[in-house]
Write a structure and sequence with these properties.
It holds the Pfam family HhH-GPD. With 229 residues, this protein is mostly helical. It is built from 13 helices and no strands. The chain has two domains: 85 residues, Helix-hairpin-Helix base-excision DNA repair enzymes (C-terminal) (Endonuclease Iii, domain 2), CATH 1.10.1670.10; 121 residues, Hypothetical protein, domain 2 (Endonuclease III, domain 1, Orthogonal Bundle). It binds a DNA duplex (10 and 10 nucleotides) through α4, α7 and α10.
DNA sequence: TTCCGGGTCC
DNA sequence: GGACCCGGAA
């Protein structure tokens, strides 16, 4: 099965260019960016990323907008709302009880940390650790925030697309865990490229490198990908 | 009616 | 490896 790595065919920089030239990223489709652009406050972005967990963007954007309209997306508003109202507001995102609890815990933590300013000022590594200590926030959610809002160096958020694509590119083995995949992608694309590369990989994963029945024959990377058929 | 997409915790 | 969940497509 040793299929080799895409690294042997093309540099990360060249691959980035190839992706950029062949895929269109619709930024409005990403709930984190919707939150970033419409509200801009760091808590709202984090809340939006929580809503997007295990949920397609259509559902998470709808849930975000409803939350925004019925309760509000600030730590104070989330803490003030009843659990049941919160669940109702975010229902369309799926896993609403789990996410309502996560939002409550996040709001509580942000208040304990002295407010949203901490999210903007804390050293990224310390913040990552603290975010991940909140039940309902894992590495992906923390890393999306750190790279999108904090532009933290050394971060590459790994969602289901990034993990699958990294495996198919031969950058990591089949059993690689989150941190290993994240490091491999970061090192390959290089500093400063995580955000763009991540968006493009998501677009690639949706359009060509799909979980089932990948469309290798039409894929713009077919000549360099070790998994192309 | 079943299937799909999509992270975190246990 | 199972539990948690929805809307929409097949």
């Amino acid at each position: 099965m040793g299929k080799g790595s895409i690294r042997d065919k093309i540099s990360g920089e060249e691959l980035l260019r190839l992706l950029r030239d062949n895929l269109r990223v619709d930024w409005r489709e990403y709930v984190a960016l919707v939150a970033y652009e419409t509200d801009g406050n760091p808590f709202a972005v984090l809340a939006a990323v929580v809503l997007s967990q295990n949920t397609n963007d259509k559902n998470s954007i709808r849930a975000y907008l409803k939350l925004r309209q019925t309760i509000g997306v600030t730590p104070e508003a989330i803490l003030e709302a009843s659990y049941d109202d919160l669940v109702e507001a975010i229902r369309e995102a799926g896993l609403p009880r789990q996410k309502a609890s996560a939002l409550k815990a996040l709001a509580e933590a942000v208040v304990r940390w002295g407010g949203e300013n901490y999210l903007l000022k804390a050293p990224p590594e310390e913040l990552r650790e603290k975010l991940m200590s909140i039940r309902g926030i894992g590495p992906k959610t923390a890393d999306v925030f750190l790279s999108l809002v904090r532009k933290a160096p050394g971060v590459f958020a790994v969602d289901t697309h990034a993990a699958r694509v990294a495996r198919r590119w031969g950058l990591v083995g089949e059993k690689a865990g989150y941190d290993e995949i994240s490091k491999a992608l970061y090192n390959y694309f290089g500093p400063g490229n995580s955000e763009e590369a991540h968006r493009l990989i998501i677009a690639l994963g949706r359009t060509y490198c799909k979980a089932r029945r990948p469309r290798c024959r039409e894929c713009p990377l077919r000549s360099v990908c070790p998994s192309a058929q």
